[in-house]
């Protein structure tokens, strides 16, 4: 509330004006701290691939008369610069999404198109791991949104489903209408997420297992981007997961008025 300062879980009553000032300062400090952490994290994340590239360049110089070694190092340079490129792209996406720029106009977007494009973008990675992506649910749903952002969000969820699955498992993406929202669920039967990490995975740079995430080429930004896309659209993203069984991420985006209603779900309030 306005008339108090939040101290951990309790609220200390204070006269109005004093409380307002105090709360303002607390809020500013917190924002500053978050920004400082973010810059420090970005610096750290950039340092790793840049350092690796420098070492690899040196290694190539020294291995000049060993074509096989040169080949190997060149491959690693390509992988490291891929990762660096992805990191920079995601940082730009994230900074655009989390404010500053006004959101482009929300227009009717076909959920089927979003899913098809996201599946397309993930197909190569899925094939490389012998994973199938099944598309199901209700066809013809229309949401109010920014198509490019929605494609990015669903692509990130699918890319994670692929990255954190092992063996020839199936991944499913399905849409349905519920209470005025389109729910897009991405399900995998991969490694799952331990309970203690489940809410934190949406934080920037948060990874359940640093070493595993690095080997999958992850940046720790994918789900933070999904969360921003959801909130920009007046929607949400939630996770269900069980360690060793798999995960389902559900993205909810408001249906466009006049959108197809789900005959088996609740009436669509648009
Ligand atoms: P990353 O680039 O590391 O995948 P994300 O923000 O997309 O970053 O995800 C954060 C962390 O959440 C990942 O490092 C991983 O530990 C966990 N995670 C995300 N999606 C899944 C999933 N489908 N199955 C298991 N763990 C996941």
TrEMBL record:
Residue ranges of every copy of the Histidine kinase domain listed in the record: 41-257
Source taxon at top rank: Bacteria
Keywords: ATP-binding, Cell membrane, Kinase, Membrane, Nucleotide-binding, Phosphoprotein, Transferase, Two-component regulatory system
Broad EC category: transferase
GO biological process: one example: cellular response to phosphate starvation
Catalytic activity: ATP + protein L-histidine = ADP + protein N-phospho-L-histidine
Keyword Phosphoprotein included in the entry's annotation: yes
Subcellular location, principal: membrane
Compartments reported by the entry: Cell membrane
Signal is among the record's keywords: no
Catalytic activity, EC: 2.7.13.3
Region ranges (Disordered): 256-270
GO cellular component: plasma membrane
MF (Gene Ontology): ATP binding; phosphoprotein phosphatase activity; phosphorelay sensor kinase activity
Protein name: Sensor-like histidine kinase SenX3
Organism, scientific name: Blastococcus tunisiensis
